[in-house]
Write a structure and sequence with these properties.
single chain; 130 residues; mainly alpha; 2 helices
Length: 130
């Protein structure tokens, strides 16, 4: 074989090798792309599933929260109604006056005056009518 044929053969071998390197690069890119695509689809599916689970959990918590708020509102309304009734009764009985000490003092004075009047009447001799 002459030099030119050897050079042509070497060039063909180098060209074939370069083509194989190029194809290996494309194959690696394709394989990587497929793996990433597969992982992305799996992540997308998992994230959609997780999102749906979170939505269901959120709906459940929202319902429980609304029920709890209604329960608290009902208890507050009942307590307010009871307290209002108690205040009405206390007012009617005169317990809600802030001048309680003053009233007690006045009542004590009246009792003292009545006691003195009774004592005065008891001390007078009985007058007989003719």
């Amino acid at each position: 074989m002459n030099n030119i044929d050897m050079i042509k053969e070497k060039a063909a071998t180098a060209e074939e090798m370069a083509r194989k390197v190029w194809l290996a690069g494309l194959g690696a890119y394709g394989k990587g792309y497929e793996e990433v695509k597969g992982r992305f689809e799996a992540l997308s599916t998992d994230s959609n599933k997780l999102f749906d689970e979170l939505v269901v959990k959120g709906q459940k918590l929202e319902t429980e929260g609304k029920d709890k708020v209604k329960e608290v509102q009902t208890k507050v309304a009942e307590k307010t109604e009871i307290e209002t009734r108690i205040e009405t009764v206390r007012t009617k009985l005169g317990f809600n006056n802030t001048d309680t000490d003053k009233k007690i003092e006045e009542l004590s004075e009246k009792i003292d005056a009545l006691t003195a009047a009774v004592a005065k009447l008891a001390a007078k001799p009985a007058v007989k009518k003719a």
